[in-house]
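SECTION: protein entry
WANTED: fold as tokens:
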Amino acid sequence: MDEQGFISFNVPVEYCRALIVEARQQNKRGRHKLPVAYAVWRPLIEAGAPSAKEARGAVTMLEPWHFDSETSRLAARGSELYKLPEFDPWLFEPFSSLHPYVHTYLNLSASHGLTAGTGRKRKTAARLTDAQKREQEMLVDSVLDKAVDTRWRLLYDTRLRRQAALFHLVGRQAEADLISAVSSELHPDSGVLPKDQPFLRTLVHRSLERGLVQVMAEMLENASLRSSPLNFFDRGE
């Protein structure tokens, strides 16, 4: 996987089993059918698997931090998470919430000589005036005000704490602490508005920059779902 450019972690088997047990419990509560891949490999996966009680011994999600002044100072560095390759794939979901803003953001960037999603951005960003930067930031403000609600914040809070647990597991404690601080600020109880959170602002900027590619990917996916299979045995011929 590493040779193909995918980021992977070496983790204990117990951690993997704990994730599987948690997912299976959620599956049962939601009364969803088993995924085909799980159903096929179920005998091997569950052979010797621990019980749900035993699996809880493996930490798959860190406990939430209390949001105080020290946590706030650390969370102020939230945009630094995007310096980590593990966070490069993190984009705003559901992306459909960003659709109304994509073309405006890309047109704004293009009008100031920026090329979204390429290395040229770093070379041309200096051309932006303060007024032009404010236009971009105002658009991000609008996205965060309208697209981020309490439910979304709670969902990403848990996602971040799961990611923090993985970094903690492999001994990358400084990064785990930064993720935990960002998660604490993201939780609604922090009282910090989404537009005042550096991690969220960077998340939206990245997502809008890649918006055109994302929109095209969604269009291709929807088109493939609507298309009929090719008929190589047309009786009319």
About this structure: The two ends are 46 Å apart (CA to CA). The first helix runs from residue 13 to 30.
